[in-house]
Amino acid sequence: MPSATETGNGSPEIRRRFSSPKAGDTGRSQTRCHPHLPGNRQLVTGAAMAEARKTAKAELAARIRKWNAADEQFGYSRTRSGETQIAGIQEASANSLWEAPALTTSDIIAKLHAIIETEDPGSQLMERPWPQLQIILADLVRIDHPA
C-alpha cells in the first residue's frame, strides 16, 4: 500500500491538522493551528468564527463612526473634495491656455510660466529642464519688458 506522501495526500499529521470537520460536528470549540499564520496562530471555526466575525464587524463599525465624527469635525473629506474640484478647474484652464494660439511674446511668457508652475509649483525641481526653462522665462520677460 502506498504511503500518504506517495499518494499526494501529504503526511498523516497534515491530514489530521487540516482535514474538514466530520459531518454532524458543530465545530463550537474546534480550532486548528495553521503553519503559515504569524506565531502559528489558531484558526477559529464554527460558532467561535461567527462570534469573532460579529465582534470584528462591531469594532469596524465603531472605528468608522469615530472616523466619520473626526472627518466631520476637521473637514477632511470636504477639503479633499474641494481640492479635487480645484484641480479639475486648473487642468481645464491650463488646457484652454495650451490650445489658444500665442499672438504676442507676453502670450508665450504666460504659457511658459503656466507650464513651469503647473509641473513644478514653487520651482522646487533642480534637474533638467526646469532650471533652463526658468532661465528662458526670465530672458523672455527681460526682452518683452526692458528695464
Q: How would you describe the overall organization of this protein?
A:
The N terminus is likely disordered. The protein has 5 helices and 2 strands. It has a two-stranded antiparallel sheet. 61% of the residues lie in helices and 4% in strands. Among the domains are: 48 residues, no CATH class; 52 residues, no CATH class. The termini are far apart. It has 147 residues and is mainly alpha-helical.
* Cα gyration radius (Å): 33 Å
Helix content: 55-70%
Q: What is the structural class? A: mainly alpha
How would you characterize the largest beta sheet? 2 strands, antiparallel
Physical arrangement of strands within the biggest beta sheet: 1-2
Q: Unreliable stretches, pLDDT < 50, 5 or more residues? A: 1-9
Topology as H/E string? HEEHHHH
Mean pLDDT: 80
Number of strands: 2
Note the total helix count. Answer: 5
Write the layout of secondary structure elements.
Elements: H1 12-18, E1 31-33, E2 42-44, H2 46-74, H3 76-99, H4 105-119, H5 130-144
Antiparallel strand pairs: 1-2
Helix pairs in contact: 4-5
Summarize this entry quickly:
By secondary structure, this protein is mainly α. Helix content is 61%, strand content 4%. Among the domains are: 48 residues, no CATH class; 52 residues, no CATH class.
Keywords:
147 residues, mainly alpha, two-stranded antiparallel sheet, elongated, disordered N terminus
